[in-house]
Amino acid sequence: ALELVELLDAGDVVSGAIDVYPAPKKQTVIDFTPDWVNSFIGIDVSAEEQIKILEKLEFTVSDGKIYVPSFRSDVEHKADVSEEVARFYGYNNIPDRPLEGVADGGLTAEQRFDRLLHSYMTAMGFSEAQTYSFISPKAYDKLRIAKDSPLRDCVTIINPLGEDKSVMRTTALPTILEVASTNYNRRIADAAIYELATVYINRGLEELPDEREVLAAAAYGDGSDFFTVKGAFEGLLELLGIADYDVEAVTDDPTFHPGRTARYSKGGTTLGVVGEIHPTVCSNFAIGKSVCVIESDVAALRGLAAGETVYRPMPKYPAATRDLAVVLPRITPVLIVEKAIAAAVGQELEKIELFDIYQGEQISKDKKSVAYSLVLRSDKGTLTDSEADAAMERAIAAVKLLGGELRQ
């Protein structure tokens, strides 16, 4: 380059050197605090070992000070020094510990329970809906709810957006059926939706309303009959560990189809209602297909859910299987029969499963044939034939008390 300057006569080359450095950088000096470094990283390295590490990196440690080399412009604070020590100490040797001064956040028990409900309903093929808590007073007429029903005692909005949103809902059925109606009228052939909704129970002008969380679901189309939706709700109860519940037919609710609705309860607490909506109600909501719904009190489910899952060891002894076919009055619920058999057999009954119901020419019109499969097992030893037969005799005796008899 200098040769070109001379050849082109662009300047004169002179001897010597010129250093243009108007503001020389001062050497960075940091306090040497080995205890702070250990606390900051969470290690235990002696001061002598830290000095050796720093001197390898061309730092100078003297009189409690660290003199940083000029080429390490990235080191300005004792936290930077701790990083150098950590690199040589080995990141893999630093023990894990929780951060200090950080809140230990997490979900509440209610939030975890709600997430479980969301996961289950989604897994069962239901899509989540979110609706307003405001409804029209006419919604109760569309549901055919009696004029004197407590459900009509609503909280009235002082400044409503309009008549269609002038009261707070006391049941989630109007809004979930509106969602079903919207889907149906947009030519969605099959739909299954659910919502964790809040209902508001009026407690007068002096108190705020009682806010209750409910699980509401509706399904229509292929594969969405009463038994499918009923099975989905019973699967939820099984997931929550709620067993030995009672089921009774609901025949006096005008919102539902008579004979196709069931109320679930345990210990006097209503768990939920599962049923087919009355055809007139479907027509009121402009739905041209039968709709099956679930409405369940989330607080009741949460209160009766099993807190812990208890596992039992694998059985040591073989099981004995027996089938029991009985003829009963047609109006006798099969759940009552199952409970009677289970109580009569006792601890030897491992499982009872309904596998057949027959109503036809072979038996009277006011009768039905019900067949169960029973799995018998003892944890004390192998059941003998006489012990299994004795258990079956107790089961038959329990059925006879319900007006039934052994089918020949």
Q: How is this structure best described in words?
A:
- With 408 residues, this protein is of the alpha+beta class.
- 31% of the residues lie in helices and 25% in strands.
- The protein has 12 helices and 16 strands.
- The protein has helices at residues 2-7, 34-41, 47-56, 78-89, 109-123, 138-142, 173-185, 226-239, 279-284, 298-304, 334-345, 385-401, and strands spanning 29-31, 60-62, 65-67, 127-128, 134-135, 167-168, 191-201, 210-220, 246-249, 256-266, 269-277, 291-297, 320-329, 349-358, 367-376, 405-406.
- The strands form 4 sheets. Strands 4-7-8-12-11-10-9 form a 7-stranded mixed β-sheet. A 4-stranded antiparallel β-sheet has the order 14-15-13-16, covered by helices on one side.
- Strand 9 and strand 10 (256-266) form a beta hairpin.
- The model has no long low-confidence stretch (mean pLDDT 91).
Low-pLDDT runs of 5+ residues are: none
Helix content: 25-40%
Number of helices: 12
> What does the largest sheet look like?
7 strands, mixed
Gross morphology is elongated
Protein traits:
408 residues; alpha+beta; 7-stranded mixed β-sheet; 12 helices; 31% helix
Task: Walk me through the topology.
Blueprint: H1 2-7, E1 29-31, H2 34-41, H3 47-56, E2 60-62, E3 65-67, H4 78-89, H5 109-123, E4 127-128, E5 134-135, H6 138-142, E6 167-168, H7 173-185, E7 191-201, E8 210-220, H8 226-239, E9 246-249, E10 256-266, E11 269-277, H9 279-284, E12 291-297, H10 298-304, E13 320-329, H11 334-345, E14 349-358, E15 367-376, H12 385-401, E16 405-406
Parallel strand pairs: 4-7
Antiparallel strand pairs: 1-3, 2-3, 5-6, 7-8, 8-12, 9-10, 10-11, 11-12, 13-15, 13-16, 14-15
